[in-house]
Amino acid sequence: MRQIVLDTETTGLDPRSGHRIIEVACIEMENRRFTGRHLHKYVNPEREIDEGAQRVHGISLEFLADKPKFADVVDEFLEFINGAELVIHNAPFDIGFLNAELRRLDRVPVETVCNGVIDTLRMAKDLHPGKRNSLDALCERYEIDNSGRTLHGALLDTELLADVFMAMTRGQNSLMIEPDTAPRPNLDADGLVRERKPLIVRRASPEELVEHQRVLASIDKDSKGACLWLPKPEAEAA
To answer: What is the pTM of this model?
Structure first.
């Protein structure tokens, strides 16, 4: 199972108005393991960047002046995602921009190159209805360090999204999939390795443990002794 976590930054919000991609980033996973392979390109959009968009990602037209055009990176991009399942937060936005760029070059749509698309925003709304499900909100919910995210950036956002996706799907591993033990890319916005903070472990308080046992006892009573989470007398004797 090969998956590509993908993100883009753009000149504005609507490709139908002529807005273009200015950054694209991809991180590769195989069988829920980070392979260490990634693709990251800044792109000259050949047009102005909306002021509102620049406030979000901080990328200026001056910075992009000497960067390649999308036509110069399209083959490398399509080869990288070929046959993989894409994992994207708010997928319709990124897919819409990618397909607009591909249409300009008379290329086939993304959906015909990749092996399906997972929208983590749709997934998050199903898992957490009525709650905020932005990437920052999900990082906070799943205790993923996003302290380096002062601005939106495609490369850093793909790494954060990969961590969020792994957390949201942790219980969906099949017996054929090995746990995620491969080294992470740990890339910052410049593509450099950055140090990851230790994982925060929160242990239940004595009061929470007492309440937990009370709930289990109630379940055991309602199910006439069929609660699987309480040790049975024969198990204790063994």
So the answer is: 0.71
Please provide the DSSP assignment of 98-162 as one string.
Answer: HHHHHHHTTPPPGGGTSS-EEEHHHHHHHHSTTS--SHHHHHHHTT---TT-SS--HHHHHHHHH
Class in CATH terms, 2-172: alpha beta
Domain ranges of the chain: 2-172, 206-237
Q: Which active-site residues does the annotation give?
A: 152
Q: What is the pLDDT along the chain (238 residues), one digit of tens a residue?
A: 899 999 999 999 999 999 999 999 999 999 999 999 999 999 999 999 999 999 989 999 999 999 999 999 999 999 999 999 999 999 999 999 999 999 999 999 999 999 999 999 999 999 999 999 999 999 999 999 888 665 577 888 999 999 999 999 986 543 333 444 444 555 544 444 455 555 565 677 887 778 778 877 877 777 777 666 666 555 444 4
Furthest-apart CA atoms within the chain: distance in Å: 75
